[in-house]
Design a protein that fits this description.
0% helix; 6 strands; mainly beta
Length: 102
């Protein structure tokens, strides 16, 4: 992932959605299932101005007893002035807010 690292860390579940409101998943090829358009976090529903990723992260792929399944990270920029940049992590078939850039 490109620098910088997030300044504030979280582990909150979020909903990454396409333009029709459908959940975004990471496919077996490491791609988004659709283009991200909205992020629902902590009761807020924000439009995205920009996104990057996903970056697949095959944690412990060499150890089948400790492998965590399909994981990936993505960066999103919420619409607004100024926009808020966030780091998301996909694991166990859902998205989590992992960090905020300041």
């Amino acid at each position: 992932m490109p620098d910088p690292s997030p300044a504030v860390l979280f582990d909150d579940p979020v909903d990454l959605l396409d333009a029709q409101g459908n959940p975004i998943r990471v496919t077996s090829r490491g791609m988004f299932s659709a283009d991200p358009a909205r992020l629902r976090v902590r009761g807020r529903d924000d439009r995205l101005r920009w996104w990057a990723g996903p970056w697949p992260d095959d944690e412990r792929w060499w150890d089948p007893d400790r492998a965590s399944g399909r994981t990936a990270r993505a960066q999103v920029l919420l619409d607004g002035d100024p926009g808020t940049a966030l780091l998301l992590c996909y694991r166990q078939r859902r998205w989590y807010l992992e960090g905020s850039y300041e």
